[in-house]
Amino acid sequence: METLLASITPTTGETRTILDPATGTAVGEAPVHTVEDLERAIAAAEAAQPAWAALGHDARSAALLRAADAVERSAEELARLLSREQGKPLNGPNARFEVGACAAWLRATAGTPLDPETVVDDGETRAELHYRPIGVVGAIGPWNWPMMITIWQIAPALRMGNAVVVKPSEYTPLSVLALAAVINEELPEGLLTVVSGGRDVGEALASHPAIGKVMFTGSTATGKAIIRSSADTVKRLTLELGGNDAGIVLPDADPKTIAEGLFWGAFINTGQTCAALKRLYVHDSLYEAVCSELAAVAAAMPMGVGLDEANVLGPLQNRQQYDIVAKLVDAARDSGARILLGGNPDDGQPGYFYPTTLVADIDDDNPLVVEEQFGPALPIIRYKSVDEAIAKANALDVGLGASVWSADQEAAREVAARLEAGTVWINKHGNVDPRIPFGGAKQSGYGLEFGVEGLKALGVPQVING
After folding, report:
1. Which of 239, 316, 373, 426 meets the CB 3.0–4.6 Å disulfide criterion with 352?
2. What is the set of active-site residues?
3. What are phi and psi of 70, to 5 degrees?
């Protein structure tokens, strides 16, 4: 890790010390880039993009495959840096998993075919639909999956012939800088640049006239600000915004069978995932059994410092998020909800560790249910009829994902079709696949990522008619 970290440590200019959220110790120094640095990055991207676009899909895909190889060569260094900066453990669906997903997404993006589509060919008219490069894409990423979500943004953008300027979260810049340094071993100079700045840099990127598209993953409030700032230059947007995903356990489900899937659906990355299971609706007939089985699984999952190979749950990444989770759990307890597990943080230990928390017998309008907690606390809500559960699941103004848990696949599909969410999983939650389109409904954003649809979203459609 030290070699990779040294390669991205600035030798000049202002820097900021990044602290490990598990221990409070220094991880490294991140550059504090300015709007002037952003301007230079955009100018370099504009200069590099035409030659990259001219290479064609095959050559660009080959470069992405080489970049995937480069990521794998540096995988352990990247994972250890990610664990220290973000807090997630090395093992489980965490740091090593995330770095592996980066390589997998690069390969999948390179291997996804996108041929011109013949729309009409009737002997008199022939019309073909093509997708041309946009130019320069701005990618603004979050702190929860900093490497993986950056790849979700930059891989299709590069494959489609664009240059990319990335603005990482101020909480996790080192991970993204290191990932880009590894990938840039296989890319032309100037094509991919990370600008590690503050809010002023993000705002300038989102409104810059040379940026043809913005990809953003983060809060709904920031997404709305990006929509407003993009208006004057009519930028294309892909927005993956906040979620508060519902899961519905149908009366025929087996509590013991589904318990581990429910746990990881809710607590992957210690609950810090946009498409995590954040409110669980369970039929009255098996409510206590599901609570019991889920609590047994959760109690057995070790939480601690990420570099300890035994742990699979880590700290909250930052104090602000810790305080949000603690406030919501306290409000639930004060309302009379039943704390099945957790809810009792040890404030004497270093790091932002909040224990795995399950909350039962909670009202529909409790803040822990209606607000996105984005952490290791899951409310479990009792229901009596499936229609009631569906109405409760659809009641909020967000709809990134949802899930249905049942022994009857057809019954689960019927319920899934009635849920207002971009993706509905059956007997799992949050499982993403580079071949399968992913995007939100309602105020969870718009635009699709992954697969053919994700590639199309990074191009300008052009019809050739004649």
Report:
1. 316
2. 240, 274
3. -65, -40
